[in-house]
Structures are given as structure tokens and as C-alpha cells.
Amino acid sequence: MTNGTSGSTAYRVEKDSMGERQIPIDAYYGIQTLRAVENFSISGLHPLATYVNACILIKKAAAIANGELGCLPRDISEAIVKAADEILAGQFRDQFLVDVYQAGAGTSHHMNINEVLANRALEILEADKGDYSRLSPNDHVNYGQSTNDVIPTAIRIGGLLALEQSLYPGLSGAIAALDSKAEAFHDVVRSGRTHLQDAVPVRLGENFRAWAQILSEHLIRIETASGDLTLLGLGGSAVGTGLNTHPHYRYQVTQILSDLIDQPLRPAPHLMAAMQSMAPFVAVSGALRNLAQDCVKLSHDLRLLDSGPKTGFKEIQLPPVQPGSSIMPGKYNPVMAEMTSMVCFQVMGYDSAIALAAQAGQLELNVMMPLIAHNLLHSIEILGNALAALSQQCLEGIIANRDRCHAYAEGSLALVTALNPHIGYLEAAAIAKESSETGKPLRQIVIERGLIEADKLAEVLNLGKMSQLPES
User: Fold this and answer.
1) Which fold has domain 3-143?
2) Which residues are bridge partners to 189 per DSSP?
3) Which of 33, 218, 441, 470 is the most buried (most CB within 10 A)?
4) Burial class for 275, CB neighbours closer than 10 Å (0-12, 13-18, 19+)
């Protein structure tokens, strides 16, 4: 390795199997990262922080395991671990430069990780960056590893981290907010609607309780789907045979990684299978898509119930969080619900791309893993963040318009449904038709026709009883 200047820029010279290149002297990335940056100027999207963390955690665990097994000198193992800890603490984040759309399987990103760790570890050892004869990205940081077992493991670890840090808190917060409103609105009766037409009355609180139940069931589905993420193919090396690894490495590195992230990780029963199949990622993504679909429905329901204020339902008031129009003064829009729908549509799109990428592997490897990694982790994070924002800036501040709800429920023609057992469907339909044509209240028509005594009618058309759910 040699150093020099090019114009006003100081540089070092690094060499790989294709030749030599000049690297900025202060850069922690190396020659293979530089080639990837030059080759893949595609989207401007760089690796997500969670994905970087997952890769660094794997490298830390591998350095510890290989140091303990005698495969790496102790000083080198310790330097790599220290460098990893610095990155996990937030340092050197600007050194991870490779575009999301890159070399198949993620080799470019993987080497970016290896080079940054190697060059920082060299500094820790009081050596020069780029002095790979002392500590090498390939021979030391990547000892006993391959892109082909590191990247699918990183997707698993990243998925587990993102679920714990983003999705589960956001989803749990939404469930709690909905449950709280269910209690607050338990006595509020509103008109049900099917086909967007009047239906029998329901409790507003039960609407919120139903939404909470729906999200709770999705939480269980996602937790179940994520179970397969805990089975790691790390130690499989290039094709799943464990070439160039210590016999105990796969077990030791998995236990260390399990301790680092406080998750019950285990070696996969068949390393080759864990490398080739993207099924665990498809399962989690599918569970996220399923959640997203119901979140869109929830968002649309909130918008409908808040529509108005003069020409819509306006049965609830969503908290206004910002002006809604650049031209119409005093207008407030259901922006948090709108944002949630947009995020959910993106998650659905990501899921479609993941499904296509998952079936595109050949023989011993799926080379589409960079796309799967980005789409899956981004789905988890944006959906969790959206639900957290929806809860804090929308759900928790919802107010019920009790008078409006009661008026709609009392005026609904669908109330005649409760008369069916007493006067029959056809007679009830005739009453509804007369009410619609004349504007007379249903109760008045029933009394005028002498079909039911007033006291009995009041009992039959009691809104509170009609909207009460049966006890489970």
C-alpha cells in the first residue's frame, strides 16, 4: 500500500484482484466499496441503519467466536469487536455507501461492511488504513464467512430487530389507544352502515373494540411468522457446506449472536436450505401485507366517520394537526389516516416485489437478497412508525360527536329490522317505505297503523338494547 496526493486530495492506493485504485485517505471503506459505488449509481438509497446494525452484530459475533476457537489472533479479534461496537454506537455511518440495488446476493454491501470494520480495526491496532497485510477485510473480518450465509442471516437479524424496535411498539400502541376509546365510547350509539347505506345501530365503542381485536390478531400472526427468523444458516459459508469454518463455529457464533440481541436463535437444521429459501421473509412480509390491508380499512373508516364537518358523517372528530388547504381557510383534513394508507400501500408493493424476488433464486443461492432485505426491513419500520404516529396524533385524541351519532341512529330506516319478529318483514318494509316517502318517523307510523302498543314499541326500538353485543 502507498499513499499520495491527487490534486488537493490525499489518497491511499489499494489493490484487489482487478488491479489498483486510489481511495481517499480518510475513507474507511476500501477498493471493493469504491467499485460498487461507481457501478451502482441507481437509486441514491443506502442501507438502512437496522440492516447495517444486523451485519455489524454478525461480524462482532463471528470475531468473538473465531477468537475463542483460535481461528483469529486475539488482538485482531478484539480490534474487530471494538470497531463493531463503535459502529453500533453510531460512528462511521457515512461510510456505508453502496446503493440498495447492487451486486447480486449483496456482495457489495457485505464488502463495504468488511472494509469499514477492517480499516477501523487497523487504526485501533495503530496501523494504517489499507494495510491489509496486518488485518484484512477478507481474511480476518470475513473469516469463516461468505456473503451467502451472512446476508440471509442479516435479513433475519434485521427483521427481528426492526420488529422489536418499530413494529411491535407501534402496533401495541395502536391497540391500546383503540381499547381506550372503546371504553370511552361504550355508551355512544350510532347508525351502522353496510354497502354505505343505513343499517341497524351499533355502539361506537364496539367499533373501536373491533378494530383493536383485528390488530391484536395481526400481532399474533406476525409474531408466529417471525419465528422462522430465529433459525440461522450462519456457518454455511459459500454454499451451505461450512467450508473454511471451525466445526464448532456455527453453534458458537449463533449462541453469541443470540446473547447480543437477546433472542432465542438456533442453527438451522440444514444450512443449505437456510441459504436457498426465502420463505421466512415471504411469510413475515405476507403477515405485514395482511396487517396493512386492515390498516387501510381502519384509516378509511376513520376518514368516513370524520367526514364533513357540515356535509358528511361527522360522528367523530379526529384531532386537527395542521391546516388542510392552501386556499380554503379553516379546513382540516384527516392527514394522519391518509398517511397511514399511503404507508400501507407501499408495504403491499414491497410484498409483491419480495414475492417475485424470493422465487428468483437458482441452485445454491438467491441473488435477489439485497432487494428482499431493503423491502422487508423498510416495510417493518415504516408500518411501525406509521402506527405509532397514528396512535399519538390521531387515535388518542378522537372525540365522539354524541348528538350526531344519536340523531343518525334514531333516524335510520334500518330500525324497522327490529320489528320483523313482531309484524313481519313485508309490513316492516312498507313502514320503511312510507317513512322514506313522507318523512314521518318510524315510531309514528307504527302507532298510527296500530301495529304495536307504544310501551312495547319503545322496548323493541330501544337503541341501547339493539346495539348491545351478545355476551361471549
Assistant:
1) Fumarase C; Chain B, domain 1 (1.10.275)
2) 203
3) 33
4) buried
Q: How far apart are CA 14 and CA 9, in angstroms?
A: 16
**For the chain, domain boundaries:** 3-143, 149-231+270-402, 412-466
How many CA atoms within 13 Å lie on the side-chain side of 220? 5
Question: Which letter does DSSP use for residue 193 in this model?
Answer: E
What is the length of the chain? 472
C-alpha cell at 317: 372528530
Decide if 163 contacts 32 (C-beta within 8 A). no
CA distance 222 to 168: 9
Residue 247 CA to residue 235 CA, distance in Å, equals 9
CA distance 121 to 75: 10
Torsion of the alpha carbons at 202, 206, 207 and 209, rounded to the nearest 10: -170
Stretch among 31-40, 49-58, 94-103, 411-420 having the lowest mean pLDDT: 411-420
Place of cell 318510524: 442
Q: Is 325 considered catalytic here?
A: yes
What CATH superfamily is the domain 149-231+270-402?
Fumarase/aspartase (Central domain) (1.20.200.10)
Q: How far is CA 196 from CA 191, 206, 279, in A?
A: 11, 18, 39
CB 3 within 8 Å of CB 17: no
**Quick one: which of 188, 19, 2 has its CA closest to 11?**
2
Q: How far apart are CA 69 and CA 406, in angstroms?
A: 73
Which of 165, 153, 136 shows the shortest CA–CA distance to 61?
Answer: 153
Residues with Cβ within 8 Å of residue 37, at least 6 apart in sequence: 97, 98, 99
Task: List Cβ neighbours of 328 (8 Å cut-off, separation of 6 or more).
Answer: none
Q: Which fold has domain 412-466?
A: Ribonucleotide Reductase Protein R1; domain 1 (1.10.40)
Q: Which residues contact 199 (CB under 8 A, 6 or more apart)?
A: 191, 192, 193, 412, 414
The residue type found at 228 is D
- Grouping H, G, I as helix, E, B as strand and the rest as coil, residue 470 is coil
Do 333 and 326 form a contact (C-beta atoms < 8 A)? no
pLDDT (tens digit, 9 = 90+) per residue, 291-330? 999 999 999 999 999 999 999 999 999 999 999 999 999 9
* For residue 309, cis peptide bond before it (omega within 30 degrees of 0): yes
Grid coordinates in use for 110? 457485505
| Calpha distance 401→189 (Å, rounded) | 10
**Residue of 56, 238, 232 lying closest to 153 (CA atoms):** 232
How crowded is residue 323: how many other Cβ atoms within 10 Å of its Cβ?
Answer: 13
Q: What is the C-alpha to C-alpha distance for residues 153 and 403, in angstroms, rounded to an integer?
A: 56
Q: pLDDT tens, 193-237?
A: 999 999 999 999 999 999 999 999 999 999 999 999 999 999 999
